[in-house]
């Protein structure tokens, strides 16, 4: 916010004495003028500062100051120098590069990993701790989903020219879903799209979609039109004789080159993805 500065004295007045968060409407007062946020007031019988009784009026003046004040990001001490109004500050947290986040394998596929860190630290963690589940590929490659069946999910991280992506497939009931997530914020993700060709014989399906940011959550957090979702019976027609599903995938910036001819299929790098049997696919 160009030209705006933080009034630290005002922010000190806006700190709730109980939870330490900045107060916004409604702000409650006690008979001696001490303030407390609305959430904490619901759990209190008297003022935490003086033990006086609460009065049945709000501090409207302080509430108005709270709406115009400039706030630092919650991750200010971690290195984020962004400043905002209170409403914009909360929206920013969803994409803050300094926000502590759980392992994407846990977030997107329910894999048991207790790591947490910033978005910029994720590629290092994934290459170090999930090496067997990460493949370094060119922008155009093939994947094999072994023994495709209902109520399974598959996942694979891929490193393409130092950019990290996460692919996930789910089979649930009569639906087959697929999406590609980029390890960056939503604005950075807008530059990437992917194409998938499902099946390698005469029966195949091709779809192109935009990539989504890891920060948007998993497939069930997206609107259905934002990822590939097909009838499972349609996919069964594309299976190989061994019940494996072969997919040709291309991930790139803006314009894709398109799928290759059958004669060139054998030259594509092949990645066998990780299968999680009977994964939790509850809505």
Write a structural description:
The structure is a single chain. The chain is α+β, with helices and mostly antiparallel strands. It has 2 domains: 8-93, Herpes Virus-1; 134-277, Apoptosis, Tumor Necrosis Factor Receptor Associated Protein 2, Chain A. It is 18% helix and 33% strand. A hairpin with a 2-residue loop joins strand 10 (152-160) and strand 11.
Question: Features of this protein?
Answer:
283 residues, alpha+beta, Herpes Virus-1, Apoptosis, Tumor Necrosis Factor Receptor Associated Protein 2, Chain A, 5-stranded mixed β-sheet, 8 helices, 19 strands, 18% helix
Q: Helix segment count?
A: 8
- Determine and state the CATH class of the largest domain: Mainly Beta
Instruction: Write the CATH homologous superfamily of the largest domain.
Output: Apoptosis, Tumor Necrosis Factor Receptor Associated Protein 2, Chain A
Query: Outline, from the CA principal axes?
Result: elongated
Which structural class is indicated by helix and strand composition? alpha+beta
How would a textbook summarize the main sheet?
7 strands, mixed
Topology:
Elements: H1 8-14, E1 27-30, E2 35-37, H2 38-41, E3 54-58, H3 60-68, E4 71-72, E5 83-84, H4 86-93, E6 101-102, H5 104-109, E7 116-117, H6 122-129, E8 134-136, E9 140-145, E10 152-160, E11 163-172, E12 175-182, H7 186-189, E13 192-198, E14 205-210, E15 212-213, E16 228-231, H8 232-236, E17 245-253, E18 269-272, E19 274-277
Parallel strand pairs: 8-10, 9-18, 12-15
Antiparallel strand pairs: 1-2, 1-3, 4-5, 6-7, 9-17, 10-11, 10-19, 11-12, 12-16, 13-14, 13-17
